[in-house]
Design brief:
Layout (H helix, E strand, L loop, with lengths): L1 H14 L17 E3 L9 H9 L5 E2 L9 H5 L14 E3 H8 L4 E6 L4 E6 L4
Parallel strand pairs: 2-5
Antiparallel strand pairs: 1-3, 4-5
């Protein structure tokens, strides 16, 4: 009887010792740091942004369901102020935003791992 009580007390104590799992928040792949250096042959916003995003499995779309202006923005030359020949590290999202011109905006579909562009100021 005494050993049964010890077993029950031990089981009760172990049950309350924090063996429950802690919920872990999902990591946003577009926040993963990436080096901002791109190959010399990449000249457009679309090619450069796809170069960064493919490392985390995201894909650029420029046709439906993307905004109609997405293809035009993707074919624009890279912003001259973008740090494309440096060893600096930025989150992918911020790196892509630096490639864009001031009047363009990044649109991200996290559920389907897609991204595109539209006119407007990014937040």
């Amino acid at each position: 009887m005494r050993s049964l009580i010890y077993i029950l007390v031990l089981a009760f104590l172990l049950a309350g010792c924090g063996f429950h799992q802690k919920q872990v928040e999902a990591i946003d792949p577009m926040r993963v740091p990436v080096r901002m250096r791109i190959p010399n042959q990449i000249k457009t916003v679309g090619d450069a942004s796809q170069y960064y995003a493919k490392t985390v499995g995201y894909r650029l779309i420029t046709s439906y369901p993307a905004p109609s202006e997405s293809a035009g923005i993707a074919s624009n030359p890279i912003n001259l102020l973008a740090p494309t020949d440096t060893v600096e590290v930025f989150p992918i999202r911020e790196g892509i935003l630096m490639l864009l011109h001031d009047s363009d905006r990044l649109v991200i579909d996290r559920e389907h791992k897609l991204f595109s562009f539209e006119k407007g100021i990014s937040e």
